[in-house]
Design a protein that fits this description.
single chain, alpha/beta, Rossmann fold, ProC C-terminal domain-like fold, 8-stranded mixed sheet, about 55% helix, about 15% strand, elongated
Length: about 270
């Protein structure tokens, strides 16, 4: 692979990427962060080279991964800009910062990539949307960007117009899952199970159900039907959910998240 990847910011998502990439051959990693203690830990764990300035990190890199907050991006890129060059590739994981903004703030000096990862990336089970719309990206750069984010989970190449939908489904999605898990745990406690045991049961329930869905060739609707016996407990629960319009509420909630993502982008 033979590439140097520099990280500007080594917070939770940056650290997850660094740890994922540390397992790959032929990649050199460098990083800059104001939190030197956090940076030093990654140096020990991941053979990361700590640099003393943003300019040094950018100058030595083939790929620059911007792991800074959206509201800080414009100012940081103004600082980064002088060290960029046409052969480099800039990657941003800042939510809501468009490819056009990234290109404008870097003076169109190098190709830019917008990426939207989600929080399960922290355990290498993330889902990332990657926008490769910049016409100046080479095939090698496109492949490398996908390799970088494949180190922390699955990657889906999307046109930028699909990012609001992706944000609503996968970006916010972990919160929906945790919300439902929390509700089932509370129901289990209400039904008489001790809270620690209820929590473990629900965690195992979700893990097993996901494994079945991923490994089975059967559609999830048919998997649901497999559990739903005539006049049984499951149909009683599902009928109650349908009467309460739970399915419609979930759909409406995801669409509300998409609308809010569009508003924030504008």
């Amino acid at each position: 692979m033979g590439a140097t990847i520099s990280f500007i910011g080594t917070g939770n998502m940056g650290a997850a990427l660094i740890k994922g990439l540390a397992r790959m051959d032929g990649v050199k990693l460098a990083g800059f962060d104001l939190d030197r203690d956090k940076l030093n830990v990654l140096c020990v764990e991941c053979s990361l080279t700590a640099v003393s300035s943003i300019h040094e990190a950018v100058a030595m890199a083939d790929y620059v991964v911007m792991c800074v907050k959206p509201q800080q991006m414009k100012a940081v890129l103004a600082d980064v800009h002088p060290a960029l060059a046409p052969g480099k590739c800039l990657i941003s994981i800042a939510a809501g910062v468009s490819q056009a903004q990234l290109a404008e703030w870097t003076g169109h000096v190098c190709p830019v990539v917008r990426v939207m990862p989600n929080t399960p990336a922290l355990v290498a089970k993330g889902v990332s949307a990657v926008c490769l719309d910049d016409p100046h990206l080479s095939q090698e750069q496109k492949g490398m960007v996908q390799d970088i984010f494949s180190s922390i989970g699955s990657v889906h190449v999307l046109e930028e117009k699909g990012f609001d939908a992706f944000t609503a489904v996968a970006g916010s999605g972990p919160a929906y899952v945790f919300y439902f898990m929390e509700a089932v745990i509370e129901a289990a406690v209400h039904a008489g199970l001790p809270r620690p045991q209820a929590t473990k049961i629900v965690e195992d329930l979700f893990e097993g159900s996901l494994a079945l869905a991923k490994q089975s060739l059967t559609h999830v609707s048919l998997l649901r039907e497999m559990v739903t016996s005539p006049a049984g407990t499951t149909i009683a629960a599902l009928t109650h959910m349908d009467r309460q319009a739970v399915r419609a509420s979930i759909i409406d909630a995801v669409l509300a998240a998409k609308k809010r993502s569009e508003e924030l982008g504008n």
